Amino acid sequence: MKFVTVRDLRGKTSELWKELEQERELVVTSNGKPIAILSATDEASFEECLWTLRRSRASDALARLQRDSAARGLGGMTPEEVDAEIQHSRLKRTN
């Protein structure tokens, strides 16, 4: 996978689009840190690619929530305790 800087993205855009066709993915960096992934697609597979990306992000968010919950000692909650916590959070939101 090839890494490109934000500066290169601004200054060499047409070259990078050609590289994207060949590489299929490019990682955009800012100050040496990854900030975005450019992924090649086409009209025929666009919706499927977008769905896959969103599903992956949702799965990652769920895994992060589960890790955070376990780290806070909430991994062993019963379903009743979970429901009570949800109700408590909803009440705080409406007040």
SSE series = EHHEEHH
Strand order of the largest sheet: 1-2-3
Count of folded domains: 2
Largest pleated sheet: 3 strands, mixed
Query: Count of DSSP E strands?
Result: 3
The overall pLDDT, averaged over residues, is 92
The proportion of residues forming helix, as a percent range, comes to 55-70%
Description:
By secondary structure, the chain is of the alpha+beta class. It folds into 2 domains: 2-39, YefM-like fold, CATH 3.40.1620; 46-94, no CATH class. It has helices at residues 6-11, 13-23, 46-71, 79-94; strands spanning 2-5, 25-30, 33-39. Strands 1-2-3 form a 3-stranded mixed sheet. A hairpin with a 2-residue loop joins strand 2 (25-30) and strand 3 (33-39). 1% of the residues are buried.
